[in-house]
Structure prediction request, 320 residues.
Amino acid sequence: MADQIQGIHHVTAIAGDANRNIDFYTRVLGLRLVKVTVNFDDPSAYHLYYGDELGRPGTIVTFFVWPDRIPGRPGAGQVTAVAFSVPAGSFGYWQERFRAHAVRFEPPAERFDETVLTFYDPDGLRLELVAAPDADTREPWARGPVPAEHAIRGLHSVTLTEGALEPTAGLLTRLMGFRLTAADGSRYRFATGPGGPGSVVDVEVRRELFRGRVGVGTVHHVAWRTGTDETQLGWRSRLLAAGYQVTPVRDRLYFRSIYFFEPGGVLFEIATDPPGFTVDETAEALGTGLRLPPWLEPRRAEIEAALPPLTLPVEPARTT
Ligand code: ZN
Prediction:
């Protein structure tokens, strides 16, 4: 299928403090800050993007910074964990690193044929490092503080917590082209495109849980990859025909997006791979200053005055 979804494009969550968020994702996790901008729908809030050298689709996590939002509550109808792919054998390094940086983490556990190290960001967002038996060939950001042999390769998967399996599984498999690849207890694994890290979604069925509440420390939405504007319109047509309420195409400058709620309540986005983050600054300069889309640039002085000052990462400072 020419327009098959190739995996996760990005995951967007909510943070309470911009500088604390930057410090954690760059200095502790070793990702590159690839874009500093504002929420295009709410220019009073920062929108921070992290990823590999260029912020390639499948490596991107982003944050809306909303200090005044109440904390979220994990629950049904949410992305409840975001997993990054790391090389096998790196967990000793990461546990030591988490101890050194006072990061809360849990003992490693087995899941399917992989090992998982669960930890939490400063806002309490549940994150995981996953080491798969097959090597993840993606290149990590080489100028971060984490040695390349241990560095994050990109996203591995997201976990959707749902009150029931069938509605969400039906959307994934019958409409979006995912296939069920494994099941263990209440956890069902689906993959799309080539499979492997970056193209995996787990559905965890928790019938007893209340609905989650989106707020600081929870995921706002997950975005799936589509190749072109044309394939995106194809997805929009098929979703509309299946009865989903889908937004018109929105220009996010670095990609174009459509949004809809999956049946369990998680906000899904389908985002184009192009044009990427070098559309408004060079690869070398990514993330080094506040970028605004052309339609907000005339309001720059007003927008900058309302935003808290940032301490941008200085590279490279390799630490343990
Ligand atoms: Zn998004």
About this structure: The pocket of zinc ion is lined by residues 10, 12, 221, 223, 257, 269 (CB under 6 Å).
